[in-house]
Amino acid sequence: MRILIVDDHPLFREALGSLLERFYPSAAVFEVGSVEEAEGVVRQYAPFDLIMLDVLLPGQSGVAGLETLHANVTTDTPIVIMSGSDNSEMMNQALAKGARGYIAKSAGVGDVKNALHLILAGEIYISPSMLAEVRQRAETKDPPPPNLLPPVDNSGLTPRQRDVIRLMARGLPNKSIARELNCSDGTVKLHVSAILRTLHARNRTEAVQAATRLGVL
After folding, report:
1. How many CB atoms lie within 10 A of CB 216?
2. Where are the alpha helices (H) located in the chain, listed in sequence order?
3. 108 burial class (0-12, 13-18, 19+ CB within 10 angstroms)?
4. DSSP assignment of 158-195
5. Which whole-number Å values give the CA distances from 67 to 63, 75, 90, in the listed order?
6. Where is this region: Disordered (predicted)?
7. Residue 62 phi/psi, 5° resolution?
8. 211 CB neighbour count, 10 Å cutoff
9. Engineered SS bond to 206: which of 79, 137, 192, 201, CB 3.0-4.6 Å?
10. pLDDT tens-digit profile of 3-47?
């Protein structure tokens, strides 16, 4: 397993690297300080199983940095955005460009572990604080960031799907939702797919926002 950390703060890089080595003892963890350095490492050592990208970097950063890395890796390599602040507009832009998660740098060790487990299983992770901001934005009827959700007349969700999305809004991964609802992970995945399809959402964040607008949450 190969993991690449792209962050311009050496102390944070080293701390995160140590944490990842604890989570995945057999992993080779690479650390660089810019997208430009990351391009060279990717070309030399690809393929990577996970890339963790700081949202603010010298040179290319944000969505531009994400797009550059996506152009240099295989399509199934998950790229996770790390951020020191909650910025829902940046988060939605990153998810729209293919980021597989948005993790706050203030997240606890357990939250990071759960997030990476979800992402490496093929899911998308949004930190609970960001989901809370999305809900608050919808509840106060602030204009959402551009290019988000199409209008939806009614939710069309089944009672069980409503249970699932309420747990999604708390930031729970599929495995935790399955435990809460006493069902299998596979069943939860089917419900999540159906929820996204019904609400015309591209990811969990958009689904939570739509459900809030419709009074489900």
Report:
1. 19
2. 10-23, 35-45, 62-70, 88-96, 109-120, 128-139, 159-168, 174-181, 185-198, 204-213
3. exposed
4. -HHHHHHHHHHTTT--HHHHHHHHTS-HHHHHHHHHHH
5. 6, 12, 13
6. 136-156
7. 60, -140
8. 26
9. 201
10. 999 999 999 999 999 999 999 999 999 999 999 999 999 999 989
Tokens of 15: 């701390």
Domain ranges of the chain: 2-128, 133-213
Beta bridge partners of 80: 52, 101
Other C-beta atoms within 10 Å of 167: how many? 18
104, 129 Cβ separation under 8 angstroms: yes
Q: What tokens appear for 38 in the block?
A: 């990351």
Question: What is the value of pTM for the model shown?
Answer: 0.66
By the 8 A CB rule, do 39 and 60 touch? no
Q: Fold for domain 2-128?
A: Rossmann fold (3.40.50)
Q: What is the DSSP letter of 151?
A: P
Contacts of 166 (CB under 8 A, 6+ apart): 216, 217
Task: Report helix angle 62-70 to 35-45, nearest 10.
Answer: 10
Residues 172 and 126: beta-carbon distance below 8 Å: no
Fold classified for 133-213: Arc Repressor Mutant, subunit A (1.10.10)
* Res 198: pLDDT: 87
Question: 52-101: per-residue pLDDT in tens?
Answer: 999 888 887 778 889 999 888 877 899 999 988 767 778 878 887 888 88
